[in-house]
Amino acid sequence: MKIVICGSMKLSKKMIEAKDALEILGHELILPRHTEEYAAMNTSDHIHNESVKNKINNDLIRDYYYKIADSDAILVINDDLNGVEGYIGGNAFLEMGFAFVLNKTIYLLNNIPALGYRDELEAMQPIVINNDYSKIN
């Protein structure tokens, strides 16, 4: 299965772990551009300062839409972040919306977070795998 990994770049190390685990299971994975570089930086300050500029200059939002369109599913790496269990930020929420409209399967690494847009998250009917990559089929 061809799977696009989504989530906050602050979780880039977790994205790489998911990619490695799913490749062992025979899946083809797509990571956000520069995931390895962000993981190596190990700092969120630089990521925040460059984020908007990077998204505009590289047309990253539209680029990821096309990658999702060309996939079978997405996996949202929604780990604990910003004081929220299972955090799903703006970009990941947008990417979930793309996947939903395109009738792609949506997997969440962890439970749906208690956020103001929880109803919308639930309405997209993601499959929660609870860190068990074997549940992706």
Descriptive account of the structure:
Helix 1 (12-24) packs across helix 2 (35-41). The protein has 6 helices and 5 strands; from the N terminus they run βαβαααβαβαβ. The chain has one domain: Rossmann fold. The model has no long low-confidence stretch (mean pLDDT 91). It has 137 residues and is α/β, with parallel strands linked by helices. The protein has helices spanning 12-24, 35-41, 44-57, 60-69, 90-101, 118-123; strands spanning 2-6, 28-30, 73-76, 105-108, 127-128. It has a 5-stranded parallel beta sheet. It is globular and about 35 Å long.
Can you give the mean pLDDT? 91
Low-confidence stretches: none
Side-by-side strand order of the widest sheet: 2-1-3-4-5
The SSE string, one letter per element, is EHEHHHEHEHE
> For the record, what CATH class applies?
Alpha Beta
The residue fraction in helices comes out at 40-55%
Q: What class, by secondary structure content? A: alpha/beta
The number of helical segments is 6
Number of domain modules: 1
CATH topology: Rossmann fold
Q: Count the beta strands.
A: 5
